[in-house]
Structures are given as structure tokens and as C-alpha cells.
């Protein structure tokens, strides 16, 4: 078991958890205010945060698996 990879994986999963909560909140805020002039930028930020949650989630799980099974 590689402890450095496990800690990196857990930290990435915590970042993914942050993005997983803030992304949908920003997205729904943008959708509720479609007539606002900043609709498109806020919608883009929300979608980027949702994509980042998926990306960091997969990377975190990948690092955890590598840490558990000592893959180099």
C-alpha cells in the first residue's frame, strides 16, 4: 500500500466533492435567472465546475486504486 498515493487520491476526492456541490448550485442559479446579462458566463462556470467534479472524481478513484494495489 502506497500512502502518498492514497493521500493524493483522498485529497482529489475532497476537491471533487467541493465541485460536486458548488457546480449544480451555480448551474441552477444561472438557469433561474435567464434574463440576467451574466447568464451565459455563470452557466459556463457552473458547467465547468460540474465537469471538474467528474474529472477529479475519476482521478481520485484512479489514484486510490493505484495506492491500494501498488501500481507504478
Task: Provide structural commentary.
With 72 residues, the protein is an all-alpha fold. The protein is 85% helix and 0% strand. The chain contains 2 helices and no strands. α1 runs antiparallel to α2. The longest helix has 31 residues. It is rod-shaped and about 55 Å long.
Low-confidence stretches: none
Largest sheet: none
Number of strands: 0
* Approximate helicity band: over 70%
The shape is: rod-shaped
Indicate the mean pLDDT.
93
Gap between N and C termini = 11 Å
- The gyration radius over C-alpha positions equals 16 Å
The number of helical runs is 2
Strand content: under 5%
Annotation keywords:
72 residues, mainly alpha, 2 helices, 85% helix, 0% strand, rod-shaped
Give the structure's gist in a few sentences.
The protein has two helices and no strands. The protein has helices at residues 3-32, 39-69. Helix 1 (3-32) runs antiparallel to helix 2 (39-69).
How is the topology of this model organized?
Layout: H1 3-32, H2 39-69
Helix pairs in contact: 1-2
